[in-house]
Amino acid sequence: RISTLLICGIIILGNISTVYADGANVVTLGTNLSSEQKQIVLDYFGVKENEVVILEVNNQEERKYLEGVATEAQLGTRTYSCAYVQPTSKGNGLNVKTVNLTYVTSSMIASTLTTCGITDANVIAMTPISGGVSGTGALTGIMKAFEDATGEPLDETKKEIASEELVITGDLGEDIGQDKATGVINDIKTEIIKNNTQDTIQIADTINNVTNNYNVTLTPEQQQQLENLMAKVSEQDYDYKEMKDALNSV
Q: How far apart are CA 58 and CA 14, in angstroms?
C-alpha cells in the first residue's frame, strides 16, 4: 500500500537537507508568495538561496497543463505551491512528501510522476499557507524543477496526461476517499500498461474490474473521464516494470 503523509502545520525540519544530499537540487516557489513566506519554504527544505537552483512558478504555467481539466476554483489566479526536487539514480524509486496540500496527497503525486516519466526522485510538495491550498499546481512545479535539474525535457503529452490524472484522482477522492481513489486509478493505469490494452472495450472492462475490486461505483461521467484518460495512457510508451518498481518504493 502506498503510504501518505499529510502534515497540517508548518514544521521546520533542520535536517531535511541531509535526507536529500549530494544531488542536483532544484526548488520551485509560487510566485505569489511574499518574501517572508518564500524564506519559510527555504527554511523548511533546509536549504539556502546560494545552495540550490530556485525557479518561480506562476498561474499561467499551471494553466498550461490544467486548463480545461481543473475547475476555475481549483486553478485560482495565484500560485502558492512550492516543490523541492532531487533526481536520483535509476532504481531508487520515488520518495514523495506533501505538506499543507488539501486536495492532493503524496501518493497521488507519486502516481502522476510515473505518468509524466519521472520514476526516480526525492520530492517535497508544500505551501507555507497555514490553511493549506489544493495543490493542483504542485505537479507543474515538480515537472519544471525536474527538467531543470536533469537538463532534459519531459514529454509534453505525458505531462498533460499526468496533470489530467491528478485532477481526476483528486475529484474521485472527494467521493470515495483519497487513498482509495489513488489505488483505483493506479491499478487501472498499471493494468492498461501491463497488458498493452488499447481497445476501448477492453479499457472499459479493465476499469470495471478494478472498481469492482475496490467496491466502487462510478458515475457515468467518472467512467467516461477514466476511459478517455486511459485511452491516452495506452497510446504512450511506458515501461510497466519501471513504473511498478517506482510506485512500490513509495
A: 28
Residue range 8-35: mean pLDDT, rounded:
60
Residue 12 φ then ψ, to 5°:
-80, 120
131 close to 51: Cβ distance less than 8 angstroms: no
Residue 47 cell numbers, joined? 536549504
* Residues 77-114: b if buried by 16+ CB within 10 A, e if exposed: eebbbbbbbbbbeeeebbbbbbbbbebbbbbbbbbbbb
Q: What is the pLDDT of residue 26?
A: 96
pTM here is 0.86
234: its cell numbers: 495506452
Question: Are 135 and 45 spatial neighbours (Cβ–Cβ below 8 Å)?
Answer: no
CA–CA dist 108, 89 (Å, integer) = 22
User: 153-189 pLDDT, tens per residue?
Assistant: 999 999 999 999 999 999 999 999 999 999 999 999 9
Whole-angstrom distance, CA of residue 105 vs CA of residue 62: 18
